Structures are given as structure tokens and as C-alpha cells.
């Protein structure tokens, strides 16, 4: 007997394919199954080629089903196989030396010069998660002390607060560095008075040459009293931009020239570059290491969790901590997280928006949280991905598909299903024998979500019914080929013109056609359609028709357009406008 007619074998393969598919995001891997089947049917070893053909056919048929349909079949037939699938929740490793501190304190400290993007997810979520894990405190600190180059903008303070809220991170305390300049001045004065910092008047190029040669400049050698005079002159506006820099002394022999006598404060002409919050009130502004270093101590930070590109900053700050008699917090430096295909450069994002390349910070092509939110990527998926990557120091490269896979698992379980027909083409069925009352579940596994109901009534002596189906489906149609209108009935194609396909009713039961792996296609009865636009990840727009029931949807709902993808509803009015998340 030809193997393809061996129904017992087909059933065996089908079960294996379904179980494999459910474990692989809905896509069974044919390659993995040949060995499995041969393990059970050793007598087929001499017929591997023929067997592979049958496996490929069955796998195709199974992969045509959605993940939910596959799960529903597996759950109904072999529920015992699913008990084992208990996924172990990945947990974060314990924080180093956590028991040394009465309360764990972590922080996220962005510069409000742009909206946040996926590149910040790790710093935010790990810091917040650890604070919660230890019943500690999570601080949001705006590091807005560069009114000139990395200039903060008022609206970004709010968008950052909003992004954190969306990510599910509650902030226990918030600080804004531009409110804290007197504090930085106080400690700078102490550092200078103690001879641990100095006001350097050297030209930058001159200083750079000397420091590379491990040589002290003449300013470094001046007595503290004279440096204090220079410091007061700086505060009083006696220096122009670039004429004076406060430097913190380090060991000039430090192997890294970037560590040696690092710059701590500089003059910024705030008449020309007013700060968005405090205007021209200050002209001396701290640089990153001074402000962050002082704040981390004063705010009681116990653990700093940040990218390893900050490692040198720790080395710099430790000199200052020693001078001030402070203990440096535990610092955890994780590796770089690269997302292939995502442009996560702030400057490119801002430039693209200015040039009109992007429609805004939520343009679907961007990796900003605003864009991800708009597309229906859930914060839970982002969190899951970040926690699984953890705090390893090695670099990790992920793709959008990794994130989508987390998101798909979340959405698949909760999102309602609807039909959407992109590029609608008329599809006529003749010889429909009766009126079909059909109830389509909004969710294949959760009947409590409810149903959409259709009454399909044939008209005229042809007993005809007209539908809309997608152009892509009609392109695959040839005369005599059989298709199944999902959850409705089977049809056989008769003829095709440029804009209409005519078919004839074949039969009702799915069982009739399941074995010949017919394509299931989504449909919308002509006359009930609701115009729809889906904004795709490349910002192009796919036009089509959605089911009439979509009129009831509310903005922010995330649904699945069957065989098309998950989308987030953005607007419902004369038509529905949605943003595409992923398959
Ligand atoms: Zn100097």
C-alpha cells in the first residue's frame, strides 16, 4: 500500500506534527519528525523517501492551522501531553551582597533629551525588578545637566514617566538633577578645598597632550586656595565657555588616559543655551560622573545596574568617593543588548523626525516604546524577554522575531479573532443548498469571549452567495481546486475573471477536505464589510475589509486578523485603523 493512503500512519504523523507545532510557535519541523516516526515504525526504514513525502504533506496541513487551532486539537485529543509543558519561569539571580544593605535601592537615570526606546528596557526593567524583588526602592532620576549638546526637552520628562508607567514600573522617588546644582557646587568646593580637584584653564588640546604623557598641568599644582579663587570666578561668570573646567584628580599613571584627571564641571553659556527648566540661572554645569556619582551616594543607591560601557565611569567615580570618604555602591555591568533591524540611535531618531522621514516618535518603523505600544507589543513581552536575558556581562543579540515570539504567546491566549480581507476580491459561490447560520468563536479556546454570527442565505435560482476574499487567496485559485471558507463550507472553483472568482458549493464538513489539505480562507459576506486600514511595520498601509463586528471595537484593543496577523486598534469611525504587530 502506498504510504500516503495509510490512514493509521497519517494519524500518527498528524499527532506528532501537532505536538511538534504546539511546541514550536505553531510551525512543526518536518525534519525532526522522520526520526520520530521511524522510531515507532522501524519497518519503514527502507521507504524513507516516501515517508518524508507524507510527512511533508501532513506538516504543511498542520502548519496551515493557527497556533490556537493546533492547541485546541491537541487539548481535545491528547490532553495528557500538555501537562508536561509547564514552562519554568526564568528568575533573576540574586544581587551581590544584598544582605549587607537594610534596603535595596536602584535607579533608572535617563537624560530627557529623547523618548525612550527598547535600548533602555534592560536598565529600567532590571533595576525596577530587583527593587521589587527585595522590597526595596526604585528611583527615577532625570540627568538633565547638559543644556547645550544633549539638550533636555520638557515634553520628554513626561513621556519618560509615561513609558515607565506603561512598562509597569512604579517609581518610589523622583529627582531632577537641574534642581540640584547647589548640592553639586557644595561637594565640588569641598573637593577643591581638600586639594582633590582643581580648576584647569588649559586649552583642551594642550591638556590632552600632557595627560596622554601622564604629565600634570600647571593648574593641578596650584595651592587649593588659588583653585578656590578660580572656582568662585567660574561661578561668578568670570570665564567664557571652554575657558575653565573643574577636574577631579586621579592617579596620572592610570593605564586608561580617559580616567586621568577627568572633567567634572564646565561653563555653559545659558544666555545662549537656556536650560528648559531653570533657564539661565546657572552657568556652571556638572558633567555626568560628578552629578551621577554624588547623587548615587546621597540617594542611598545600593546597586547600580547598567551597561558595561559605564565601567570606566565607575573607575573615575571611585576616586571621588575615596576623597569624600564614601563607599561605592555595588555595580553590575551587563553586556550590550543588540536588536537586529532596530535603529536605536537617539540622534538618528530625532534627525529622521525632523526630516519628515518618520511620522513621529511612534512611527511603526522605530524601536521606541511609543511605537511598540502603538503596534500592540505588550510590556509583559518586553519584560519577559529582558528577564530571560538577565544580567550576563556578555553581549546578547536578539531579533524582532524574539520579541514577537514572546508577544505572540501572550496575545494568542487573549486576543479575539476577526476576519480581515486585504485587497478584497469578489468571490461568488453558486448552488448553496440552504441558509447557513454560523457562529464563529471570538477565541478558539475561550468560548466565554462570545461569538460573531452570520446568516448566509442563497439568492436567485443560482442559489448564489457573494463574499469578499483576499486577492492573495484568489490568485492561488484555479478551476476545480477546492477551498474551505473558514468555519463555513467547502467550495470548488469554476471560473475566474480579473475581479471575480466564481465557485460552486462542494460540501459542508471540514472532515471532507481535511485530508486533502485544502486552504482555509477567511471571508466577509458582501454588503456587511467594514472598511479597514492596517499600518504595516514599514509604515505602508494595507487597505481591505474587516468584519462588521469590528465596528464595536474600542481603540487600544489588540485583536488577531486571522491568517493576517495581530493588530492594535487605533481608531474606529467610518473605518477601522489598526497597527500591525506581527504574524
Ligand atoms: Zn590646566
3D architecture notes:
By secondary structure, the protein is of the alpha/beta class. The chain is built from 19 helices and 27 strands. It has a seven-stranded mixed sheet with strand order 12-25-26-27-23-24-13, covered by helices on one side. Strands 21-18-19-20-14-17-22 form a seven-stranded mixed sheet. A four-stranded antiparallel sheet has the order 4-5-6-7. The longest helix has 17 residues, at 7-23. It starts with 6 loop residues before the first helix and ends with a strand. The model has no long low-confidence stretch (mean pLDDT 93).
Structure summary:
By secondary structure, the chain is an alpha/beta fold. The protein is 34% helix and 23% strand.
Produce the secondary structure layout.
Blueprint: H1 7-23, H2 30-40, H3 48-63, H4 67-77, H5 80-83, E1 105-108, H6 121-133, E2 137-142, H7 154-166, E3 173-176, H8 181-193, E4 197-200, H9 204-212, H10 218-221, H11 224-235, E5 245-248, E6 263-267, E7 284-286, H12 288-298, E8 303-307, H13 311-324, E9 330-334, E10 337-340, H14 346-354, H15 369-375, H16 379-389, E11 396-399, H17 400-414, E12 417-418, E13 420-422, E14 424-430, E15 436-441, E16 451-456, E17 465-470, H18 471-475, E18 482-485, E19 489-496, E20 500-507, H19 511-514, E21 519-521, E22 524-525, E23 530-535, E24 541-546, E25 558-561, E26 565-572, E27 576-582
Parallel strand pairs: 1-2, 2-3, 8-9, 10-11, 12-25, 14-20, 18-21, 23-27
Antiparallel strand pairs: 4-5, 5-6, 6-7, 13-24, 14-17, 15-16, 17-22, 18-19, 19-20, 23-24, 25-26, 26-27
Helix pairs in contact: 1-2, 1-3, 1-4, 2-3, 6-16, 12-13, 16-17
The chain binds zinc ion.
The site of zinc ion (ZN) has 6 residues, from loops.
Amino acid at each position: 500500500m502506498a504510504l500516503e493512503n495509510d490512514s493509521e500512519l497519517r494519524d500518527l504523523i498528524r499527532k506528532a506534527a501537532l505536538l511538534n507545532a504546539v511546541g514550536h510557535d505553531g510551525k512543526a519541523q518536518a525534519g525532526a519528525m522522520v526520526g520520530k516516526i521511524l522510531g515507532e515504525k522501524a519497518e519503514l526504514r527502507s521507504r524513507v523517501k516516501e515517508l518524508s513525502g507524507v510527512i511533508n504533506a501532513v506538516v504543511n496541513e498542520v502548519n496551515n492551522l493557527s497556533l490556537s487551532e493546533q492547541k485546541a486539537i491537541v487539548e481535545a485529543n491528547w490532553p495528557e501531553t500538555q501537562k508536561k509543558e509547564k514552562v519554568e519561569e526564568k528568575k533573576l539571580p540574586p544581587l551581590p551582597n544584598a544582605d549587607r544593605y537594610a534596603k535595596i535601592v536602584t535607579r533608572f537615570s535617563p537624560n530627557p533629551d529623547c523618548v525612550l526606546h527598547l535600548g533602555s528596557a534592560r536598565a529600567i526593567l532590571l533595576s525596577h525588578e530587583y527593587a521589587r524583588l527585595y522590597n526595596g526602592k526604585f528611583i527615577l532620576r532625570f540627568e538633565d545637566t547638559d543644556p547645550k549638546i544633549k539638550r533636555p526637552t520638557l515634553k520628554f520628562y513626561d513621556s519618560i514617566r509615561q513609558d515607565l508607567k506603561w512598562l509597569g514600573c512604579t517609581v518610589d522617588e523622583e529627582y531632577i538633577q537641574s534642581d540640584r546644582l547647589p548640592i553639586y557646587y557644595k561637594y565640588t568646593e569641598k573637593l577643591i578645598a581638600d586639594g582633590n580637584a582643581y580648576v584647569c584653564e588649559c586649552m583642551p588640546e594642550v591638556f590632552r597632550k600632557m595627560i596622554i604623557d601622564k604629565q600634570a598641568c600647571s593648574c593641578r599644582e596650584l595651592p587649593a586656595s588659588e583653585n578656590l579663587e578660580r572656582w568662585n570666578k567660574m561661578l561668578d561668570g568670570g570665564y567664557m565657555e571652554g575657558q575653565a573646567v573643574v577636574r577631579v584628580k586621579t592617579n596620572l599613571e592610570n593605564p586608561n588616559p580617559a580616567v586621568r584627571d577627568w572633567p567634572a564641571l564646565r561653563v555653559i553659556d545659558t544666555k545662549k543655551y537656556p536650560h528648559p527648566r531653570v533657564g539661565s540661572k546657572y552657568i556652571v554645569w556638572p558633567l555626568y560622573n560628578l552629578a551621577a556619582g554624588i547623587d548615587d551616594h546621597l540617594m542611598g543607591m545600593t546597586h547600580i545596574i547598567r551597561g558595561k560601557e559605564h565601567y570606566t565611569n565607575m573607575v573615575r567615580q571611585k576616586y571621588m568617593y575615596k576623597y569624600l570618604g564614601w563607599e561605592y555602591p555595588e555595580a553590575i555591568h551587563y553586556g550590550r543588548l543588540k536588536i537586529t533591524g532596530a535603529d536605536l540611535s537617539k540622534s538618528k531618531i530625532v534627525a529622521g523626525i525632523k526630516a519628515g522621514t518618520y511620522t513621529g516618535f511612534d512611527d511603526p518603523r522605530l524601536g521606541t516604546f511609543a511605537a511598540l505600544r502603538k503596534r500592540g507589543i505588550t510590556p509583559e513581552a518586553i519584560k519577559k524577554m529582558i528577564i530571560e536575558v538577565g544580567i550576563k556581562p556578555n553581549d546578547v543579540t536578539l531579533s524582532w522575531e524574539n520579541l514577537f515570539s514572546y508577544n505572540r504567546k501572550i496575545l494568542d491566549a487573549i486576543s479575539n479573532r476577526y476576519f480581515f480581507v486585504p485587497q478584497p476580491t469578489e468571490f461568488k459561490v453558486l448552488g448553496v443548498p440552504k441558509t447557513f447560520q454560523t457562529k464563529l468563536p471570538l477565541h478558539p479556546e475561550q468560548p466565554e469571549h462570545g461569538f460573531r454570527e452570520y446568516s448566509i442565505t442563497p439568492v436567485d435560482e443560482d442559489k448564489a452567495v457573494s463574499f469578499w476574499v483576499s486577492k492573495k487567496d484568489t490568485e492561488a485559485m484555479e478551476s476545480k481546486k477546492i477551498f474551505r471558507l473558514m468555519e463555513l463550507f467547502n467550495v470548488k472553483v469554476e471560473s475566474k475573471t480579473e475581479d471575480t472568482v466564481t465557485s460552486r458549493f462542494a460540501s459542508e464538513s471540514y472532515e471532507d477536505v481535511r485530508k486533502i489539505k485544502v486552504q482555509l480562507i477567511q471571508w466577509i459576506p458582501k454588503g456587511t464589510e467594514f472598511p479597514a486600514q492596517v499600518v504595516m511595520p514599514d509604515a505602508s498601509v494595507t487597505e481591505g475589509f474587516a468584519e462588521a463586528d469590528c465596528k464595536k471595537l474600542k481603540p487600544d484593543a489588540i485583536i488577531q486578523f486571522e491568517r493576517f496577523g495581530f493588530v492594535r486598534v487605533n481608531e474606529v469611525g467610518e473605518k477601522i485603523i489598526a497597527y500591525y504587530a506581527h504574524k
